[in-house]
Amino acid sequence: MYEWRNIIKSIILAGGSGTRLWPLSREKYPKQFLKLNEKSLFQDTVSRCLEISDINEIYVVTNESQKFFVIGQIEELGYEIPKENILLEPVAKNTLPAITYGMHLIKKRFGNDFVGIFSSDHILDKSAMQTIKNAEALASEYLLTFGIVPTSPHTGYGYIKPADPIGMAFKVLEFKEKPDIYDAKKYIKEGFLWNSGMFLFETTVFFEELEKYAPDISTAFRNYETIEEIYEKIPYISIDYGIIEKSSKVAVIKLAERWSDLGNFSALYNEFDKDENNNVIHNCEEEIINSYGNLIHSKTGKIVSLIDVNDMIVVDTMDALLICPKSSSQKVKDVASSLKDKNDERAQLHQTAYRPWGSYTILENSEGHKIKNIVVLPQKKLSLQLHHHRSEHWVVVKGMARVQVDEEQYFLRQGESTFIRAGIKHRLTNPGKVPLEIIEVQLGDYVEEDDIVRFDDDYGRE
Amino acid sequence: MYEWRNIIKSIILAGGSGTRLWPLSREKYPKQFLKLNEKSLFQDTVSRCLEISDINEIYVVTNESQKFFVIGQIEELGYEIPKENILLEPVAKNTLPAITYGMHLIKKRFGNDFVGIFSSDHILDKSAMQTIKNAEALASEYLLTFGIVPTSPHTGYGYIKPADPIGMAFKVLEFKEKPDIYDAKKYIKEGFLWNSGMFLFETTVFFEELEKYAPDISTAFRNYETIEEIYEKIPYISIDYGIIEKSSKVAVIKLAERWSDLGNFSALYNEFDKDENNNVIHNCEEEIINSYGNLIHSKTGKIVSLIDVNDMIVVDTMDALLICPKSSSQKVKDVASSLKDKNDERAQLHQTAYRPWGSYTILENSEGHKIKNIVVLPQKKLSLQLHHHRSEHWVVVKGMARVQVDEEQYFLRQGESTFIRAGIKHRLTNPGKVPLEIIEVQLGDYVEEDDIVRFDDDYGRE
After folding, report:
1. ipTM of the assembly?
2. What are the residue boundaries of the structural domains of chain B, listed by start?
């Protein structure tokens, strides 16, 4: 369709854990997979990459616990990504190892090639992809980074100072860490750009520079077979520290498009449509009196009432409520890490958990019983399993279920129910064309998720 | 025990509907019955009245929908109030009709008598009851009202200006409506008292003055038989407007005790214990950073996180979230009335509804199904009933249930379940000694509370 298709490959970095948008995002449900709009930021990123790469040329670096988001959300876009293009990091070691993992695989498969590197949790206008594509010729000589023309003296971004032009790019005079507001204003006057964390590399140039500035990583990828071995040997390091700020071959290309890393709730507020009182209201009924400039996001179906409240963030989920001024958005990650330090599972997961076969939401969790609303996607099935400590009652509230209990199989229609005794093998399948919804009442002396023995599983979890 | 026992009777006004502490209180669950501490304000009021009256001498004016709170909460105190002492107003007509209803009944039964009148939703130190008791002698000549020695220039209370002393009381120079802060300060300098809304009356004096200043009410109570007829004839009017501010027989007695009408969340904040950051935190886990002077009340079991938030009210219930500065507490009633205007049932009720037999909490309410956690108190039973539009699945999670379905009776133990088809008569009983807890899954094209036909009911609702 376009002559330049099939020329540039894409690596999407989708392994980040989410703490800065807690309690919307969780460690195991990071912001790139949140459906803040109809599509997630990850899905938007995939759509952008499809402007320069075929789906078979897109590589996603992520981890085991987020693999199902990656597959599922690409499926929702109507595409199927080859399984071998999903690269699972055994442990997060920042951007340089993740990018090298993708570059290494592409080089092994295809030899020399051009590769765009994209974060999965940024907002970017699609038109930027044309510029990135046009930069290809320069990538044979330079490690190309992309700098956004700033629209404000933002203190949450790194800055790049461009120097002499080289074709459509510029040499880089210096990189600056996140500045204070005074320096940020100075940078803007002096023509600095925001460091976007997007790159365009040729494999050959990349590995030459990697060998020069991070030989330990280069060596590990050459000498070890499994990704587990490699990741054991290499340091935790960003591509900026590791290569970009050191290499003399770096050039920057200006992008004038709308871009944001949505790094906190204040950035989220800025990106969304406001009502006539400058409030951003997501997902909830509200009863608001004399309140302006707030971000209100509720996932609980409850009514939210604000009176005389201005410039606040209010995020209400089933298990957590966050309230802070927009100007304190950057402190939200402190709450998430405090919870993590206490081993509080609300740092990691929501009441709603996503599974390869669908999702479940915990409606009530008390001593001796737990009640879940379970949604099974059409044609999907849960593993064949048993629980030692709990029995389960299932009532079908929507769709049709095929139930296997021991060797017996039967169907349940809307309004029908069944009972599964502790210690009995069972399996739930949605044989239909519409989502199956059941209410599960678990009863037993122990009703935690880890009381499960899996015998057969479509998703390799047995 | 005390020589003065059995001399003074008490009327407790407990018919108010709660909007000023929404969403904690609701129209059908007003603040006097909330368990803000271990005891409700109503229970505290009953305990105070027991200082001057036997339980048989306490009269409670309330309405049908709150009758079960009155009986239940007095039972919890270990007392049984005679059923004929609970007076049900067919419609709320403010304090003068309610007080006259009680006074009328006492006069009819006992002739002349002394009666203390008490709101059920105020905080008051018990020691005040001694003063009230001591005032009895004066009540043969005066309508006695009680004025609180002010501790601040409160703009939410009415004020009374005392004049010359008459024994332990004072003549009243004038009554003042809720003032602005300027006038409030002036009143305090001039020795005004807060109008507490408590009274001590002799029936004879009360009815003489009623005849003089509100003859329509006096006449209605004399001439009509049923309370419904009487309430149809009489106006909506407070005792202050109707009698107290007009009668020349009014005297005020000073009380120096701690008193508050808990008229809004700010008052609630003032009355409760603060932590080291001056936060009042009720019922919830919190993760609070740099936040001071807040009232946080959550009934949802979730974690509440505040960052850099000061002097705010945060009230989180299953179906509503309220956020406002303490200084805007008085606007909360506007939200409740706005909801009421929209016929939103969250103005009236909680997700948890209290019934004579126990309570239920709605866990999920979706199109076509509703899930409830139902608690049946020991030895209590629901009505014999049927639903046209919904079937019900019951799973016992605690205790034992006796189930009647059509003519059949059987028992369900913990972990057992049953299914009740639409159109079938059924009844649920707790035959045991501990509360019975069941999960009910309702399924049908219509799952609202009004799809119920009652055949037999312990509580006269058939």
Report:
1. 0.79
2. 8-260, 265-330, 352-456
